[in-house]
Amino acid sequence: MLTLVMPSERPGNALPFLLLSAFRVLIDELHARLAEMGHPELRPAHGFAMQMISRGGSVSDLGRRLGVSKQAASKTAAGLERLGYVRRRPSVRDQRQIELFLTPRGIDALTASGEILNQLRDEWAALVGEREMLLAEGVLAQVGDFDGLDRFVGWLGV
Between β-strands 86-90 and 98-102, what pairing exists: parallel, antiparallel or unpaired? Predict the structure, then answer.
């Protein structure tokens, strides 16, 4: 059972580090399990990029969504292409644009990621209690912006 610590017992500057630590534990375990499922080369930045690529669009769109230059987005896409997760091809509308698509391997990795994250959420709930987990998720939903993935990833500069 989770023990709640009153704010006066924990300084506010600890909150960002607690959130980052929990995020890191979650993402590290996600990638350990993805590696066991045949995706050992994937890194967190790849996951962010593939999420953005799954929405469709060009290399320029990917750069805008990730908050990086077109050159950095192109390098990321090329790396994912070498690993077999992404395919690049000239746009049918504008030959100057390069469109990005997930390959079946890329779709498999994103699908597996979602399943693993659901498992991890359930494992955390088993550890702290479902009521506490729902409370934590509710609080984070109130203070965060769940639909702001584009802004979040761009802010990270992934």
Answer: antiparallel
Residue 48 phi/psi, 5-degree rounding, is -60, -45
The residue behind tokens 């769109």 is 61
Q: Report how far residue 136's alpha carbon sits from residue 69's, in angstroms, rounded to the nearest whole number.
A: 35
| Angstrom distance (rounded) from CA 58 to CA 73 | 10
Q: What is the pLDDT of residue 27?
A: 95
Q: What is the mean pLDDT of the chain?
A: 88
Distance CA 85, CA 112 (A): 13
d(CA 41, CA 98): 24
Type of residue numbered 25: V
Q: Which residues pair with 99 in a beta bridge?
A: 58, 89
pTM: 0.82
Residue 25 has pLDDT above 90, yes or no: yes
Yes or no: say if 52 and 153 are a contact pair by the CB < 8 Å rule: yes
